[in-house]
Amino acid sequence: MNNKVLRLLITFSLVIILGVVFSITAPYFLIARNISQLFRDAAYIGLVAVGMSFVIIGGGIDLSVGGIICAAAILTARLSFSGLPGFVLIICALIIGGLFGVINAFLVTRLRLTEFVATLAAGFVYSGLALILGFRAENGALITKGIVNRGFLAWGQSVGGVYYITIVWAVVTIFAYFLITRTRFGRHTYAIGSSAKSAQMSGVNTSLVKTVGYLICGGCAGLAVVLQSALNGSSSVNIGIGYEFKAIAACVVGGVILGGGKGDTISAFIGSLFLIMLMNGLYKFGLATSWEYILQGAIILIATALDAIFNRITTRRLLALSR
User: What pTM, to 2 d.p., does this model score?
Assistant: First the structure.
């Protein structure tokens, strides 16, 4: 059993254990309504994490996702008042998010800025753009604006107890899994994450592959926020704060290795479900919100430590076999 499968099994086992513990200690945890809401909440982070996984597997990082979510939410909300159909608004959100992703890729691949600095700075710019375009009261104060476009709001509903955002999350995860594991683009993404220099020497167009990765990341962020806005029935400049770190945490917990070359979208899926299940269960115990941040940091540290341990074990085995 390789490290990838082992990490995935560990995270999946933790999801099962959490489910058992919370179902015993929290009487309303396993009811159908709570399960539906749990997957709904996980879908928001999960969609962003799916896009983030492409960037991380390719050896990068995207700290602009929160800003992309803010800007895409406000721009899409403003477009919703023009009477555009709901499906068209979803396409617009994908395009808006993807465009921001391409801008990130330009900063990294053409201007040769480090990904940490480039995406961090870009995130501030996108957040500033959201503040400029945000809805305001007569006195100039930023406000949360209710959305009245019925075609748009319909995407926040559910069918058979399953929310549309959950269905979209599952479909996108499956499609992204085949994209990253069964295509030349996916193989090149893994190659770049393992060693960008070696991949370039092998003829891989690293700039193009990275650009597509950032495009997917931005598009997933735009898709996530438009469905979340439809669910909330409103849009606010605060909607994306901190979600870049939630998405990174979901990826790391699931087994997508920071530094690149390992993991897939299924890992991001299970990691997102684990995080939300943990937060959902803790909320039912009435713990303070501060524990959410403490636990997220602790989980990232533990997951990273596990990956380091697995890598050491693998390295030792390879050295033993080579002797």
Answer: 0.91
